[in-house]
Amino acid sequence: MKAGIYLGKEQIEIQELPLPEVGDDDVLVKNLYSSVCGTDVAVFTYGPNTGHKVTVGGEFGHETVSRVVKVGKNVTDFTIGERVYPYPRYAKGDTKRAGTIGGFSEYILIPNAKRNHSLYAVDERISDKRASLIEPFTVGCRAARRGMIPCGKEQYVAGQNAVVFGCGTIGIAAAVSCKHFGMDKVMICDYSALRLKLAEKLGFAICNPMEEDFETKAMDYFGTAPSLNGAVANIDCWLDAAGAESILDDYLRIGKIESRFVSVAVNNKPRTIDLLHMTYAQQSIIGSGGYMPEDVRDVQKMMASGKWNLERIITHEFSLDELEQAIRMAGDVDHAGNVVIKMQ
User: Fold this and answer.
1) Could you say which DSSP state residue 115 is in?
2) Which are the contacts of 190, defined by CB distance < 8 A and separation ≥ 6?
3) How far from 299 is each of 120, 131, 189, 274, 308, CA to CA, in Å?
4) Cα 145 to Cα 260: distance, rounded to the nearest angstrom
5) How many angstroms separate the CA atoms of 301 and 123, rounded?
6) Is 297 exposed, middle or buried (0-12, 13-18, 19+ CB in 10 A)?
7) Among 55, 166, 257, 315, which one is most buried in terms of CB atoms within 10 A?
8) Residues 6+ away with beta carbon under 8 Å from 330
9) For 178, phi and psi rounded to 5 degrees?
10) What is the spatial distance between Cα 183 and Cα 135, in angstroms, rounded to a whole number?
11) Percent of the chain scored above 90 by pLDDT?
């Protein structure tokens, strides 16, 4: 089989590897489409120990949709020909390999395969290309869920407002999920005109803070609400999928009373927070990393509903032999949205 092998900073090679041997409890899947993650771009651009921990000399990639091609003699959960989503946390039986399951290889061996654990069935209403977005959408879905207020089992307070910073796949996924869970108004902010246009075509209000005054536009769109410092935009949830230091600073400065800040971006620098201000403003800062099984379920509901033309955020498609070109394109935020690899 062909496999994309990571060899270090800006070094990728397509190699021929033996087809994995299938044990009695294993499943072999053939990848159909794989999406390029921002962590793939990071480890390619900056080298090992950035993004996911990708092993030099090893397979990588984790956003994929596949088809079952061989099952072990003890496997009864899956049938040959079934379309599945490999759940990265458990696909290889090692959560540390969530970013290196072999999404950029033609085949993946799933050891001790279990339904709704390491492999999930894919709704037939979801195209192969769209299904390659399930993994990043589960990350965005989890972040949106963390920003909601529960009001019962799997129910959330509706009618609130959210702003999402970052218009990559995860940011758009978070915005779509906010609407799915009952948010009223949702705005997406980014510096990329191309990516903002993609969000606007999905029906979201947009703002480019480099060209527009965010505070003014937000108050015009959301209306106003009280804060400790006076009238501010009526935003219940600030969701950071970009990672710029200024986003948290702005939230603490102009976030309304009883608002929430959700961080799903990689924010790895220590920060200083005015805890007394947060206390009197009754604000919350919430972390969101990864995803859970319920996010896989809800993302498939969103994708299958027909309400969202999510394939429009995919701007480029490459073959596996063009993997390096695809990763470089995915890192060009001014000229690319989501980038996918067609594996066949």
Assistant:
1) B
2) 165, 166, 167, 171, 196, 199, 206, 208, 242
3) 12, 10, 22, 36, 11
4) 12
5) 8
6) middle
7) 166
8) 36, 38, 40, 41, 316, 336, 338, 339
9) -55, -45
10) 22
11) 91
Q: Name the strands in the sheet holding 58-59, side by side, starting at the edge strand that comes first in the sequence.
A: 11-16, 2-8, 58-59
The total of other beta-carbon atoms located within 10 Å of residue 210's CB is 11
Residues 153, 157, 159, 165, CA torsion sign: negative
Torsion angles phi and psi, residue 78, rounded to 5:
-130, 155
In this prediction, residues 11-19 reach a mean pLDDT of 97
* Largest separation between any pair of C-alpha atoms in the chain: 67
Q: What is the rounded distance in angstroms from the CA atom of residue 162 to the CA atom of residue 259?
A: 10
Q: Are strands 119-121 and 83-86 parallel, antiparallel or unpaired?
A: antiparallel
- Residue 51 in this model has a pLDDT that exceeds 70: no
Q: What is the DSSP letter of 96?
A: G
For residue 192, with 0-12 CB atoms within 10 Å meaning exposed, 13-18 middle and 19 or more buried, which class applies?
buried
**Residue 69 tokens, joined:** 């091609």
Q: What's the pLDDT score for residue 153?
A: 81
Report which secondary-structure segment, H or E, holds 226. strand 224-227
Q: Coil, helix or strand for 15?
A: strand
Contact 228, 257 (CB under 8 A): yes
| Tens-digit pLDDT profile for residues 115-143 | 999 999 999 999 999 999 999 999 999 99
pTM assigned to the model:
0.95
Residue pointed to by tokens 């509706």: 158
Give the tokens for residue 252: 């603490």
Residues 6+ apart with CB under 8 A from 256: 225, 226, 227, 232, 233, 234, 235, 236
**Residue 126: DSSP 8-state:** S
